[in-house]
Request: fold
Amino acid sequence: MTPSAKPMPTKLFQPLLSCLLACAVVAGIVGAGFRPLVGRAADPPAAATTEQDDAQESMAAKAEILQSSRWRRAIFELGEWLSVQKIYPPREVQRIKADFNTKVMKMSPQELEYLLDDLEAKFKIIEAPEAQEARAWVGQY
Reply:
């Protein structure tokens, strides 16, 4: 992006990571707090354990993606573009960011990877020499 553009505050996306980690902690605490008390086996059924393990693995994979340098770079580039683009007014940009965060929170690790690949591909197009020439040409008018 342009050197004069302000970097997007990382504070915007920090709550997302904090929320995911908090959900993982709460899931562990709640899961541990509802063990059978008397007259029952202490171990949950194998299917429930497998589902919990899958959920924990999914949360760990998601957290790994959200903490990766690729993700941070993509979010930085998205913020840069949103800060310099002329299509959406500032209020709409804030709504776009909020919607983006909400959708990301609901995504699986596979969906996050797909989103990350898609964002990177779009940024390559935006940064291509042809796109830069087109922006310069449009800027003349």
